[in-house]
Write a structure and sequence with these properties.
The protein is an alpha/beta fold and 229 residues long. The protein has one domain (7-224): P-loop containing nucleotide triphosphate hydrolases (Rossmann fold), CATH 3.40.50. The protein contains seven helices and ten strands. The protein has helices at residues 49-56, 79-89, 105-110, 120-133, 149-161, 179-196, 207-210, and strands spanning 7-18, 21-33, 38-42, 64-69, 72-73, 90-93, 167-171, 199-203, 215-220, 223-224. The strands form two sheets. A six-stranded mixed beta sheet has the order 6-7-8-3-9-10, sandwiched between helices. It has a four-stranded antiparallel beta sheet with strand order 2-1-4-5, with helices on one face. Helix 4 (120-133) packs across helix 5 (149-161) and helix 5 packs parallel to helix 6. The longest helix has 18 residues, at 179-196. The structure holds adenosine-5'-diphosphate and magnesium ion. Magnesium ion is lined by residues 49-50, 171.
């Protein structure tokens, strides 16, 4: 079944209610992402990019429509199944890294393996291997506060990779970095895509960053904008 898209979004809708106001963030969104594809997601602030990523990663539920990953309809999973699915399927990369400051780099990278039933030694080996993939073997004992922003983001990418997830979701991963560090993070994501065949969906405001992707999806008024790609 490798011919069918890895991710199928069908007529997805999401509305937030705040007091009297209803915000219709996603309004019948449909899109496909192929296995191994690197896709950039662009759109004005507030256009629903983060909301879409949260739904794709099973962090939040939709009001209508479907997300199908590898033939699995995500909304049909119950709470425990969804946690398990998320742990095995999705790697998250955030703008502000979200590392735990009291843990060393290698300990941060080990965290997502908690649900995998591995022994301590194997967890450590896998975390060190992931740090190797992002070129940070020599920083494994450092605390986040002892690393540059670019290095923190590489630790966060190692944390996203350590479970060997089916796809990576990156929400403005270079949004808080200087141009040089941002370029290095984009080089790294490109390498994970080309050399390891990772499927990546990356939100960005930068046209330069988006140009690294195979394809650009533009969000507009809660839908995929037509006529641009
Ligand atoms: N938990 C929430 N409660 C209420 N409104 C929300 C919530 N999350 C997002 N929104 C609103 O949904 C819209 C889309 O937000 P978001 O997906 O974060 O946009 P983007 O990432 O494209 O900037 C915004 O108007 C935002 O204020
Ligand atoms: Mg956002």
């Amino acid at each position: 079944m490798s011919e069918s898209p890895l991710i199928q979004v069908r007529n997805l809708s999401k509305t937030f209610v705040r007091g009297e106001a209803e915000i219709h963030v996603l309004q019948g969104m449909s899109l496909d992402i192929a296995r191994g594809e690197f896709v950039a997601l662009m759109g004005a602030s507030g256009s629903g990019k983060t909301t879409l990523l949260n739904l794709l990663g099973g962090l939040d539920g939709s009001d209508g429509g479907q997300i199908i990953v590898d033939g699995q309809v995500i909304s049909e999973l119950d709470g425990d199944q969804l946690s398990d699915w998320r742990a095995h399927t999705v790697g998250f990369i955030f703008q502000l890294y979200n590392l735990l400051p009291v843990l060393r780099a290698v300990e941060n990278v080990e965290l997502p393996l908690a649900l995998f039933g591995l022994g301590k030694r194997e967890r450590r080996q896998r975390a060190l291997a992931a740090l190797g993939l992002v070129g940070l073997n020599d920083r494994s004992d450092h605390y986040p506060g002892e690393l540059s922003g670019g290095q923190e983001q590489r630790v966060a990418i190692a944390r996203a990779l350590v479970t060997d997830p089916t796809f990576l979701l990156a929400d403005e991963p270079t949004g808080d970095l200087d141009p040089k560090s941002a370029g290095e993070i984009l080089d790294l994501l490109g390498r994970l895509h080309r050399e390891l065949g990772k499927t990546i969906l990356m939100v960005t405001h930068s046209h330069e960053a988006a140009a690294r992707a195979d394809r650009i999806i533009h969000l507009e008024a809660g839908r995929v904008a037509q006529g641009v790609s």
